[in-house]
Here is the input.
Amino acid sequence: MTIVMATGTFDLIHPGHGLFLEEAKKFGGKDAKLVVVLARDSTVRSKKRIPIINENQRLEVVKMLKPVDEAYLGSETNMFEIVGKIQPDIIAIGPDQKFDVETLQKDLRKNGYDVKVKRVTRCKRAPLDSSCKIIKKIRDLDFGDEAFKDCVDK
Here is the structure.
């Protein structure tokens, strides 16, 4: 069985996330196992923005996604630590992730991991195809008080 590892924030789940995970799993062939590693809240804050959904809830949702066989939170200090635990055959990089495939491949080898790195090139194009676009749309909407009448804070 081929183990494919995919990583990401997965803050506000949208169809692009689903397509990325489906395509990542295909890298491993028919009997592939897809293991997803989610960025920790501290990592998201330092590299992207404040996460909307906390890491534990993001992990819970990703575990429910059809292509996902297992999911874990990544390390806050050493991105290669989880690679040693999972021991993937392939690491899938998303079409919008800023990693350079060749550089990551070299860094993995320097750290003792013989893992193929492949980039998913297909992406889902839609008006709300990224978490940032969803956040911007929500920010720009003019909700009246009526929109929140059924919201219950606990």
